[in-house]
Design goal:
Number of domains: 2
Number of strands: 14
Mean pLDDT: 92
Number of helices: 15
Shape: globular
Largest sheet: 8 strands, mixed
CATH superfamily of the largest domain: Glycogen Phosphorylase B
Strand order of the largest sheet: 3-4-2-1-5-6-7-8
CATH topology of the largest domain: Rossmann fold
Helix content: 40-55%
Distance between the termini: 30 Å
Structural class: alpha/beta
CATH architecture of the largest domain: 3-Layer(aba) Sandwich
Order of helices and strands: EHEEEHEHHEHEHEHEHEHEHEHEHEHHH
Length: 385
């Protein structure tokens, strides 16, 4: 099959949950015998990179601003894919999915799929008009494709009811992680291993990092540093607010965006991973921490609780006092933290295994393509008579 992915910034992933999802899925679909194409934005993926692990990369321009980046690139990718010999056109996220009606109507032989990664209407960086546009995108993502995928069961249930459609549950996944010793993180930030708490996230308000910093600052004699890995996503004012909140505390470290070896070291050597988001689809950063065998303390929103399945601890969403109390407890319970990490790793390797997820996605594609072929047979037979 010829499969085209639209909506992501590009691959290989530098940052972003959608980009990690697309990279892992696309490269594995190639190994399943498919020809896979990923549209990339020139400010994200180097233009001289035209292929990555067998995935062909199509570079298109865009306007790199908060409101125009995704929609301009998606429009250009959509117009381009209309000229391609595509079996599957797969849109990622509800914003880009607002344009999937074009190939749905104008490219009838191709099958259109959408993945509902998260309800971006809940993201606090967007204003009223943007949220209304995202609401339209969510409606189109559920009602107009040949198939819509939801990355959490909670999401499938909620949006199937909201839009009176049907979402098929295929979760985000994580590859099996290998622990690595601290080298880069020691040289860059003086981290020795097991001496810090980690959060990995874009620095956006709905990710709740301000709650985490406030809860950390209220700890009594913390024996671990707080490391926040991530950077602005057209949210420079919020980034400044976080830095101001942390003040001159030397134990709060902002690393900026990290990937590759540095990110692997951060996950491998943290004492505890904290996921304080106010809203999520299904956090890949959380799943990655689980795959490294790390205990997770997360906000009690439904997708987080679904991922952790009652293993470990959660805190009341947006509650600084509850987060502070849970942090204080876990810092004093290293044996419990280790046990929780092992159990979460087992869950990550079974429920969120990329090999199984890729096969399920590939099977979904094959069913859609075979249905189209079956519809053509009677037409051909009729004409021959």
């Amino acid at each position: 099959m010829k499969i085209y992915f639209i909506g992501q910034k590009g691959i290989p992933a530098i940052y972003g949950g959608v980009e990690r999802h697309v990279e892992n899925l696309a490269t594995r679909l190639v190994k399943e015998g498919n020809e896979v194409f990923v549209y990339a934005r020139k400010h994200y993926t180097p233009e001289d990179l035209t292929e990555y692990q067998g995935v062909k990369i199509i570079h298109l321009p865009t306007i790199n601003t908060k409101h125009l980046d995704a929609i301009i690139h998606t429009l250009l990718a959509t117009l381009d894919v209309l000229r391609k010999d595509a079996d599957i056109i797969h849109y990622h996220a509800i914003g880009p999915s607002s344009l999937l009606w074009l190939p749905r109507l104008l490219k009838r032989k191709a099958k259109v799929v959408s993945t509902f990664h998260s309800d971006d209407r809940n993201h606090r960086k967007w204003g009223y008009l943007a949220k209304k546009c995202l609401g339209l995108g969510a409606f189109i993502a559920v009602k107009m494709p040949h198939k819509t995928i939801g990355v959490s069961q909670y999401q499938c249930d909620v949006h199937s009811k909201e839009f009176k459609g049907q979402l098929e549950y295929i979760p985000n996944g994580v590859p099996q992680a290998q622990l690595v010793a601290p080298q880069l993180i020691t040289a860059k930030w003086g981290l020795q291993g097991n001496d810090y708490i980690l959060a990995v996230s874009r620095l956006i308000k709905h990710k709740g990092l301000h709650h985490l910093i406030r809860a950390y600052l209220a700890l009594k004699n913390p024996n671990k540093k707080l490391v926040i890995a991530g950077d602005s996503n057209f949210t420079d004012d919020y980034v400044k607010y976080l830095h101001d909140l942390a003040g001159d505390n030397p134990n709060i470290i902002f690393t900026g965006n990290q990937s590759g070896q540095a990110l692997a070291e951060l996950y491998s050597n943290t004492y505890l991973f904290v996921q304080p988001s106010e809203a999520e689809g299904l956090s890949i950063a959380l799943l990655e921490a689980m795959s490294y065998g790390k205990a997770v303390l997360c906000s009690d929103i439904a997708p987080n609780l679904e991922a952790t399945a009652g293993i470990g601890l959660s805190f009341r969403n947006k509650s600084i006092s509850d987060l502070n109390q849970k942090l204080q407890y876990l810092l004093a319970q290293p044996e419990f933290v280790n046990q929780v990490g092992q159990k979460l790793q087992e869950r990550a390797l079974t429920e969120y295994n990329w090999q199984a997820i890729t096969k399920r996605t590939n099977h979904l594609y094959q069913e859609l393509v075979s249905q189209a072929a079956e519809k053509l047979v009677p037409e051909i037979e009729t004409k021959s008579v």
